[in-house]
Amino acid sequence: MLMYDTWEEQEHDFPFPSDSETKGAMEVLQWAYDYYGDELVYACSFGIEGSVLVDLISKVKPDARVVFLDTGLHFKETYEVIEKAKVKYPSLNIEMKQPALSVAEQAGEHGDELWKRNPNLCCQIRKVIPLEETLSGASAWLSGLRREQSETRRNTQYVNKDNRFKSIKICPLIHWTYKDIWRYAHKHSLPYNTLHDQGYPSIGCQPCTLPADWASGDARSGRWSGQGKTECGLHQ
Ligand code: SF4
Description:
Elements: H1 7-13, H2 25-36, E1 40-43, H3 48-60, E2 65-69, H4 76-88, E3 93-97, H5 103-110, H6 114-117, H7 119-135, E4 140-142, E5 159-162, E6 167-170, H8 178-187
Parallel strand pairs: 1-2, 1-4, 2-3, 4-6
Antiparallel strand pairs: 5-6
Bound molecules: iron/sulfur cluster.
Family: Belongs to the PAPS reductase family. CysH subfamily.
Main location: cytoplasm
EC number: 1.8.4.10
């Protein structure tokens, strides 16, 4: 398994973006699929970054494995965009990965609306463990993180040691701005989650996602709003 100990090592393999449209993303994806092949999986949330990354991936590896962590609590608009992606990219392997407990079973074991009382446990059951299971059969995973998204993502590199999942996390979009993402999506007429048109820049499960508070300057301010939580546990 490839490891980078310093940014200088990465910089050697990935000099600052030479491709003006994709800001290095295509070079990183090409390297990643050459290196990991079928052992590379994309955990996609099917927000706008997901729409863009799925499109880029389809140009590099048309039969790539794309996994959606289907908590059973997503917006109908999210499921709609997944169906559109399946039509647009028929050769991609888009999997719906469900947790061991259905929403009703979780309520039976932990009480109704666990996300209100213990969102960390809810995310652990419905997102973190399913991703662990997904990555147990992979050497590395792709994520659409961008540095601009939040303070906690500011230091994300193209290739990251992922101690949480004992894996390698590859993030081709780190240099993209929100405008870059939308410019690409419109130029290539990509299907996208229509909640973005209703003030949701970041979209997760329905019970834990509100439109963003744009005045805060934080595109992720609508996620777990008022609960003191900013990440689901997949990215630390
Ligand atoms: Fe549960 Fe909310 Fe996490 Fe979804 S985002 S798994 S509903 S706590």
